[in-house]
Amino acid sequence: MVSSGKEVRETRIVTRRLHDVDNSHTYDAARADGAYTMWEKVLAAKDTADIAAQVKASGLRGRGGANFPTAIKWESLPDVYPRYLVINADEGEPSTFKDRELLEHDPHQLVEGICIEAFACNINTAFIYLRGEFALGYDRVMQAVADAKANGWVGENIQGSGFDLDIVVHRGAGAYICGEESGLIESLEGKRGMPRIKPPLPIHSGVYSKPTVVNNVETVSTIPHIMKMGGEAYARLGVNRSTGTRIAAISGHVKRPGIYEIEFGMTFREILFELAGGLRDDRKLKFFLPGGASFQWLIDTDEHLDQVYDIDDISAKLGTTLGSGAIMAYDETTDPLLVAWRLAKFYAHESCGKCTPCREGTGWIEKILYRMSHGQGRPGDMELLMSASANVSPDVLRAPFTQTTICPLGPSPVSAVASLQKYFRAEVDAACANGPVSIPVSAS
Amino acid sequence: MSFSSENLTRAHEIIAQYPDPHSAILPLAHLAQDQDDYLSVDAMREIAALVGTTPSDVQGVCSFYTMYKRTPCGKLVVSVCTNVTCLVVGGPEILEHLEARYANDDDVFVEEVECLAACGNAPAMQVNYEYHEHLNPELAAAVVDDYKSGALRARGVSGGIR
Predict the structure, then answer these.
(1) What does the pLDDT read at residue A7?
(2) Domain B5-62 adopts which CATH fold?
(3) B126 vs A133, A251, A326: nearest CB
């Protein structure tokens, strides 16, 4: 692999403390490293308009996968009280593991971000909705909130300012769909986590039908740094409308899997072959998932590897997105049908069952892909798969951006189907050429 | 089953955290499961009374979530990931090995689970929601055996600290 010549390295902002400070999850270590200094500063300045202005100038966009500008969410809050802040820490997208690191190793950064955001939005109650399986993350976030309270950063009349903030840590119980913001809100209300029909958006009617800001862990963890650097300085990092840094969670057949905080603007070649060290045993790359499990795949071509890590550019040029920040790379020994099947199995398992096209469709996609990936594929199965997929995501090759469902879960496995059709059609046909054929239905 | 007096106090603290007591159903179910090693019908009745709803409502909610085991499942829930990263680095082989090894062991419940957010250190599993990473079939079995012998101290069946 030819090196690009320039130095490829991380830009650690949100992940600096967890890398550089021992026991970064503890109050004493985090505080000694500067935790809560920005909270203290903005609380003393009492200038909530300035916080909003800095976040707007920073160009910060939601890091959960939807890329929605954080400042616009805040501006959309109606003048209704009480209003709530909900932190989406229900990280469950296959191959995504960045929030878990932030929760387990830098919970005070998150708490400080919550404090600043709640203050800016005039919110007195924040909920952290943690994925149920994150037992250690729960212990550490609970401890962080307790320590922040004991030290006067959270609670009533914080630092004599008259501002009150209560933070409630809430554990889920094993349902990917609760990462969808309205499903999360249902779950937080003690219900089955089934997404709501929108509108109304949570910002207008969320938890307990009150205005609710829902933000991802990484998004909120960035806020103290934006206040420290200044919004404009933060916006100078990155490219175009993809400002700042993003935590890429890299896994699969790479030599050095893990989380890497990168400035937007790197290429996938730099990310996969320089940061993550290339593929194990120096095998050849076959394909990679540039944005988690729900979006279309890319392959080993110069066009795809030289694609810049830019939210809008990748979507305009290649029809996929950076999603949750996860990147999975697979070597030449990997059967793309098997990966597609396992993804479909995930979505079929996690479908909440509310919308018929998803409840039925994900199951059918999984069943067809199962036989195709287990040596029992039949000629014509790819057409059958495309046809079944079209019931969930009508314009299959644009999946998951067309949907017949309330939320994007149903169309997500169709992204894998579209990727097979676009890049691996010949391989798929070969795999299904000799399998069992359907019993012909007699016309007589 | 009913909540111990200590857990009943904790239950009331949990309920008081929320503007609406109905929100406490999930955390109370975790509390009950950590106490009893599974989530019994009696526990769901008691939760219903505590939050002011019907037992069928609580059961309807809890049946949605895979972490709640509504029949006894032993003392150790072993959750093995086989999703797309673990898939290509040996997750399914670990699952197969553990399922066979503990097939007749009432204390150990082996289950296949979706992505555990441990892809950087795959293949991974959890035992009562404690992470174990960089595994192979033999290492995974050794970890489970360490919990069985008490060499490793297990969390509750819902992941709470014991």
Answers:
(1) 79
(2) Arc Repressor Mutant, subunit A (1.10.10)
(3) A133
Question: What mean pLDDT comes out for the span A394-403?
Answer: 96
Q: Picking from A215-219, A262-266, A421-425, A438-442, which range would have the lowest pLDDT averaged per residue?
A: A438-442
A16-235 — its CATH code? 3.40.50.11540
Helix, strand, coil percentages (3-state) for chain B, rounded to 5, are 50, 10, 40
A92 touches chain B (CB under 8 A): yes
* B contacts of A96 (beta carbons < 8 Å): 115, 117, 119
A257: cis peptide before it, omega within 30°? no
Q: Is the pLDDT of residue A361 over 80?
A: yes
- The helix/strand/coil state of B116 is coil
Residues A414-436 have a mean pLDDT of 95
Report ipTM (2 d.p.).
0.98
**Domain range list for chain B:** 5-62, 76-149
- Interchain CB distance below 8 Å, A192 and B66: no
CATH of domain B76-149: 3.40.30.10
Q: How far apart are CA A374 and CA A338, in angstroms?
A: 8
Shortest distance between the Cα of A62 and any Cα of chain B, in A, equals 19
Return the number of other C-beta atoms located less than 10 Å from residue A199's C-beta. 9
Residue of B nearest to A89 (CA): B117
Tokens 């709803």 belong to residue: B53
Calpha distance A236→A184 (Å, rounded): 34
Each domain of chain A, given as residue ranges in start order, spans: 16-235, 238-331, 336-432
Low-confidence ranges of chain B (pLDDT < 50): none
Which residues in B lie closer than 8 A to residue A100 (C-beta atoms)?
A: 117-118
Q: Of the CATH numbers 1.20.1440.230, 2.60.120.200, 2.60.40.2250, 3.40.47.10, which one belongs to the domain with range A336-432?
A: 1.20.1440.230
Hey, which residues 172-201 in chain A have their CB within 8 Å of chain B? 172-176, 187-193
A24 DSSP assignment: T
- The CA distance from B160 to A112, in Å, is 25
pTM, entire model: 0.96
Residues within 8 A of B (CB atoms), A 93-112 only: 93-97, 99-100
Q: Which of A192, A251, A330 shows the shortest C-beta gap to B120?
A: A251
**What fold is seen in the domain A238-331?**
Ubiquitin-like (UB roll) (3.10.20)
User: What does the alpha-carbon distance between residue A306 and residue B100 come to, in Å, rounded to a whole number?
Assistant: 46
pLDDT of residue A1: 45
Q: What is the pLDDT of residues A151-172, one digit of tens each?
A: 999 999 999 999 999 999 999 9
